[in-house]
Structures are given as C-alpha cells and as structure tokens.
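TOPIC: backbone geometry
CONTENTS: sequence, structure tokens:
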Amino acid sequence: MAEYRLLTYRDAGKPVAGVLVDGRVYPAAAMLKGSGIDASSVLALLGSWTKAHRALAKAASAVKPKNGKPLARVKLLAPILYPGALFCAGANYWDHMEEMAKAEGRTVDRAKRPEEPWFFVKTSAHSIIGPDVPAKLPANSRQVDWEAEIGIVIGRGGKNLPVERAMEAVAGYTIVNDLSARDLMRRKDRPPVMTFDWVGQKCFDDAAPMGPWITPVSSIRDHGNLSVKLWVNGVLKQNSNTRELIHNIPEQVSYLSHHVTLRPGDVIATGTPAGVGMPRGEFLKPGDIVKIEIEGCGSLTNPMAAGAR
C-alpha cells in the first residue's frame, strides 16, 4: 500500500478533505467513492479512522496522476477544521526544562522525572490557522514566543487507555506552533493560586498555527526519535529530538484518557524543546517568518503580522 498524507485544502472557496500522494493532491471523496465512508471532511474521516485509513492506503496505490493537482497549486488549510479539543503539554522536554532553569539560576536533575505529564487547553477554532497564513500578533503583547511541537491526532480515541494500548487511539501526527505571549503569563492583580493567565498567554487569535497535513502513524517508524527544528527568518533556533521528551507520546495519550474521553479529531501538542526565545529575551515581531520541520511530518511556515488594535 502506498504512503499518503491527509490534509484539508480550499477548492471553489470551500474546505475539502484531500490526500497527498507523491506530490499530488486528490479529493478524498473521489478516492473513497462507493466505500460508504464519510469523506466530507478530515474530521469525518477521523470518525471512522480504522476503516478510512485502510481504504485510503489502498486507494493511494491506484491513483492516476492526471486526477490530482500538484501540491504547489493547492491552498492548504489547517488539516482539521476544527479539533474538538487542543490539549497542550507543558514543560515536557528535558532540554527545554534545563534552558529555562538555567535562565533562572537553577538546575534540573534528570533522575527526578515528574510522575505525570501536565496539560493546559488551548482554544481550537479561535486559535488554529493553517500553513502560510499570517499569524496576527496580539496588540497587547510585546513578547510572543515560538514553540515547535509535534501534535498527536486522535483517531479511534477512547477512555482509560493503558500506556501499552494508547497508540491504538492515535491516527497520526501534525505540526503545531504553540505561540505564547510571555508578558501576559502572570496576573499580579489575582491571588497566588490564580497567578498564571492561560487565556491571555496562550489563547489569542492565531495562537496555534497547525499543519501542513496529518502523517498516519503507520508512516512514522519511531515516534520517540524524530528531529524537531524551528527557524526564525532563516536562523535555526530550535534543534532537538523527541528523545528529549520527559513523558513520551503513549504516556501523554494514556494520561489524558484517564481524565477525559479522547475523541476523533482531538489534537495533543506534546511540548516544545529547547531554543525558545524567552531565556534569551528574543521575541517575534511583525514581518518575521517562522518555519518548523518535524521529521516525517513536513514543514509549517507562517509569517507574523501585526494584530488589530
């Protein structure tokens, strides 16, 4: 069976579920015609993922190039419009923990791994934008930071999943840029227990560029050994590997499933590695170009733009 990538693109002004095979994009509905599988959107395909993946992989082997469009001529949107939930892991790379601790004059002991992962929730339709779309920087922030992350896309989903079975719930992977307004992180006008403002710093418009597509789990040999890189204006800022994850992908999926029922289309951003701007006092400004590459997942590029005042 041929390898493929699942994506959403604009056709005649409407979002369409598409399949990328050998550099050409095909409408998923045409590939699955007569199968009884709902291909009206990527979210619908994820709703019957086991059957859909098998059918798409088979169909990808038989596509005719004349029926597809060159990828360069297709306007890609965010791959899922929109996830029911966007969960984000915090402080989940050892090298990132170390760079933040060093900036504060502390050290990190890798022998003392936190018992469980830690998550916050980011807005979905409010924050998610696709490849090449300008991300509007919030007008009330001067310290927006970049964060390259591999996103887990839920397929079958489930509840109370043990770690050894957690990957059964996963359809594939995508790229997420968890933009963060660092200067909106703390609220001095609130009691200590309410110091951190997770809406202000994480949930502004365009705060979650995502894409360019979904890479099925079957196309990634080892999710625990993937390079993660980010450039700002062509300068390499983040250069790490998922080997640095504190809690790996199955552990994150399992943990969340013990709190909520994971549903098809949910996305889990798994944390960012070292190389963010905050420890160096470097932040994004209008006109900057951010590019992320994650091994096996393609690349995601977004220019930064001034937000409305």
